Amino acid sequence: MKKPDLKVVLLGDMNVGKTSLLHRYMERRFQETVSTVGGAFYLKQWGPYNISIWDTAGRERFHGLGSMYCRAASAVILTYDVSSMQSLLELEDRFLTLTDTVSDDCVYAVVGNKVDLTDVAGDEDSATALGTPTKIRRQVQLEDALAFYKKIIKTKMLDETSVPPAEKLCFETSAKTGYNVDTLFEGVFSMVVPLIKKQDGQEDTVNLEQSNSHKETKKGCC
Amino acid sequence: MSVQAFRLLCASGRQHLPTGIQIECLECSGHDLYLGTSDGFIYHLLLVEEHNSDPTGLSLTHQGDCPNTTFSTTPQRQKQLGLKKAVRELRAASAMSRLLVLCDNTIFLLSSESLEPVPGAKIRGALSFTLNENPVNGDPFSVEVCLISSKRRTVQIFSVGQEKVQLLKEVATPEQPCALAADGHYLCLALSNHYITMNYNTGHCQDLFPYPSEQKTPIVKRISRQEFLLAGPGGLGMFATVAGISQRAPVRWSENVIGAAVSFPYVLALDEEFIMVHSMLDQQQKQTLAFKEGIILQDFEGRVIAATGNGVYVLLPLPLEKQIQDLLSSQRVEEALILAKGARQNIPKEKFQVMYRRILQQAGFIQFAQLQFLEAKELFRTSHLDIRELISLYPLLLPSSSSFIRMHPPLHEYADLNQLTRGDQEKVTKCKNFLMSYLSEIRSTEVANGHQEDVDTALLKLYAESDHESLLDLLVSDNACDLVDSVSWLERHKKYFALGLLYHYNKQDAAALEVWVRIANGDLEDNTRPDLYEYVVDFLTFCRDPQLVWQYADWVLQKSEQVGVQIFTKRSSDVQLHNSFNPDKIIDHLSKYHKALIMYLEHLVLGKRIQKEKYHTHLAVLYVEEVLHLKSMNTSEQTEETGLRTRLQNLLRQSNLYRVLLLIDKIKGTDLHLERALLHGKLEEHDQALNILVHVVKDCSAAESYCVWNSQGRDTPYRQRLFQLLLSSYLSPPCTDNALLVAAVDLLNNHPTEFDAANILHVLPENWSVQLMAPFLAGAMREHIHALRMTQLAVGLAKAENFIYKQQKLSMKGKPVVLSDKKLCHVCRNPFQEPVFVRLLSGHIVHTHCATNMHVNSSLSDNLPNTSKRT
Ligand SMILES: Nc1nc2c(ncn2[C@@H]2O[C@H](COP(=O)(O)OP(=O)(O)OP(=O)(O)O)[C@@H](O)[C@H]2O)c(=O)[nH]1
Ligand SMILES: [Mg+2]
């Protein structure tokens, strides 16, 4: 098995669509899912790098596994459902604490999924006027996510000037339509890949095969 | 869906144990099986594995798949430790012939043969222990025992040798542990409600995750270097490394797992009713074996053993290859490939590569049979499939000369494409299209290496059959099509033009031409090229075989003289073929074909500018004959005749080689007057020529242009003589024809400068008025004066130039130049180091190098340096 160069973890309450997002990104389609048991992971070849993406289970009973999945993660994608304020609050209450084990320069992304379900952002009146019955009211605005992102930075005591701005790491997506899904993952990857070199030095086990390939990639980018 | 990965075989029933006595724990090392019982006994049994060969001999299964393997046990010694307490754990240290037994919170060290305790070697106060399978200290004559001490929250590390035990380390744990596993410096511990890893050297702990309290026994199992398998919440089998990271997704067990074992690439778990088999590669459950009342599931040196209270069972893994084949035969390509890839570490490299290649190829054919061509292609490509395996599926595509035999055992079950598609023509076509594009893609790559002939022949057949335009491209480029096979195939599919190309490529131009000529003659039907005749002409033009060219020369000329003659005219001259195609021979051959002959001679005379009298004369004569012939036909078709005459006249004008008298003779008595005039002109008989033009042809402008072109490149007197002759011709014999008089006047007035006016005035009739001739006179006068002035001007200029030179000469003959230390160079202002300098026209002296620079830099001509060497 190829050893991944870095790890990205998806966190969020059950039913917000973590599995669907990953599925959309990896398999390019949207499919009915079952609630994830434990966790699952995918390996994504991203340029010369192998990125492992962990899909965690949002259900309460698997909550205890979260810290382990997050250990040494280079990026955490905190996912909520735009039609549920509760799902955003859960992120703060329940999931943020799981990220104490992540790597030092971990990148946080906040993602509001299922935008396809809701009316157009900030244009509630017209949407109601149109009376589309399938659309439901959006409960979380992008501003809420931005505020949450800033809160993360604060609670993690990260240097606000050195982390990427909130606008670059708050996304609204739809796994169903595919809207913004690639932007999300590729945006996150492009931010974490530069961290790989730093991690090299910290590794305490020596993997010959891997250290070789690292040398190669270093050569490649000069 | 399931795979059969293991078979459950009973090794020992209850026969060895007294009734009511339960197996508590077991250990297996090689053939030695040890059972620990609830009443404190240790039984040593020999585990015997037997492979009964299939008596019927009908079994087709591969080697290594042992459907008839059985296990049995034969009892050896037994021993009671005299405690009547249950034996909790048993571990063999086979290198030291020792058995470690946990009973009554004490670890005893027994001889593994006699089962007698080693005196003095025991560890007291142990609740549970494990052997570190990856000890940091690699001493082969001791083992590292890690144990949970009966002291609260303590683990201890012992080194156990053959005769003695030694405490290495005692470490406090955050909470009371209840299960442990060890690897290197690390322990993995189950605490009261969660798992941790701990570095026993540093005491550093790392939380893993909580486990639910309803779990009866937490499971902590080392599965590989630095990796553990743990029973997690929700019936999950979780993987964790010593660093507290999960590298594999969890497997889903049931809620109450009693024991777990690993047999790569599978993890097995035991609950009250089943043994579940999951793959570590894709986390899927692969097999479920019913197993009731199980209490133990463990792996010992790679062998998985399960036990109930009184029976011992071996889980015999089926060979991976067999499992993969099973998956493939149920079309589960993806799983088969994952399993094959995962087996890489467990199979020697060479063997693996061969096996894996074969699996990829089989997988490729499965995908192919499902018309998943993209996937199939990728699999064929990566597995370096001998492309003929694929071609051979298609009936008749491989050349009959091919020595190919399909691989044995076969990569797939299909006899041919018809069987594979069950005769569905649409599918057949799809398959053919796929092969076509695949072959054309790979034919120039290394994939086709060595099988070029088979590949190209197959491709040719597919193209021919499907009327594909690339057939021709294939044949005109480098190819290795088998000739015999391809010929009959192309004939069968009536691709005659292509057949010709094939012959040509195989250096059989005669055969090629024969086919093409038959098509052109309508004997064979093939509409590939409507312009086949032109194609053949072109082909012959570039054909380097003179015999063939001559053989088909008549054929092409008979079809069209104009086009056919190209085989000679457009042929590039080649020294080697010079003899075969010498002009005389060709001319001789073309005697039957007038038009062709004219074109050929034109090619020689006008095109190649061959300066030979006979060609020029021959061409001129032919022109004349053809013109006369056309005239005699008296057709209304004038254009051809005029065209021909123009060509004749051009030749007569431009060439100086032909035999003039012969031609004059030839056209005697005909009305080719203009030509006659030209001929006389050639003989410098300009008066005759002009007379013909003026009096017979009566074409004044022709006569005038005659004068113009005949005097081209000659001096003025010659030209003037011609014009004067023309004038005389107009005026003589003392003529009455007014038109000629007018022409004469016009001639004079329009070309006053072409005449020597002084001479002319005598010739003119007396009665011509000055007024009539005013333009001429004025023009002649003007010309005269102009000439005079021009001459005077030239004289003046020449004199002036002469003066300039004289003046320069004088100024150069000046005084001597004295060079002293005080003299400086006019340009650089430095003294002179050597007695060499340049004196400028201005009188200044400068260094030679300064002068050169100055010369380069300046364009002033009066500063031209004048080198002199004087001291
Ligand atoms: N309309 C809509 N539905 C979505 C979207 N993403 C997911 N869903 C649906 O939401 C439900 C839950 O999706 P999952 O991807 O299983 O959610 P999850 O976050 O993985 O849930 P857990 O695995 O239990 O943590 C499914 O029924 C999906 O079909 C989306 O973008 N739009
Ligand atoms: Mg999920």
Automatic annotation (TrEMBL), chain A:
Stored Gene3D superfamilies: P-loop containing nucleotide triphosphate hydrolases
InterPro entries per UniProt: P-loop_NTPase, Rab20, Small_GTP-bd, Small_GTPase
PANTHER family reported in the protein's UniProt record: DRAB5-RELATED
Keyword NADP: no
Name of this chain's protein: RAB20, member RAS onco family
Similarity field: Belongs to the small GTPase superfamily. Rab family.
Tagged with keyword Lipid biosynthesis: no
NCBIfam families found in the cross-reference section: small_GTP (TIGR00231)
Keywords assigned by UniProt, alphabetized: GTP-binding, Nucleotide-binding
Superkingdom, natural source: Eukaryota
SMART domains: RAB, RAS, RHO
CDD domains in the record: Rab20
SUPFAM superfamilies: P-loop containing nucleoside triphosphate hydrolases
Gene Ontology molecular functions: GTP binding; GTPase activity
Lineage: Eukaryota, Metazoa, Chordata, Craniata, Vertebrata
Pfam families assigned to the protein according to its UniProt record, in alphabetical order: Ras
TrEMBL record, chain B:
Main location: cytoplasm
Subcellular location: Cytoplasm
CHCR repeat positions: 571-735
All copies of domain CNH, residue ranges: 20-304
Keyword tags: Cytoplasm, Protein transport, Transport
InterPro entries according to UniProt: Clathrin_H-chain/VPS_repeat (IPR000547), CNH_dom (IPR001180), Vam6/VPS39/TRAP1 (IPR032914), VPS39/TGF_beta_rcpt-assoc_1 (IPR019452), VPS39/TGFA1_Znf (IPR019453)
Domain of life according to the entry: Eukaryota
GO cellular component, as recorded: cytoplasm; membrane
A Pfam family assignment: Vps39_1
GO biological-process terms attached to the record: autophagy; endosomal vesicle fusion; intracellular protein transport
Protein's name according to its UniProt entry: Transforming growth factor beta receptor associated protein 1
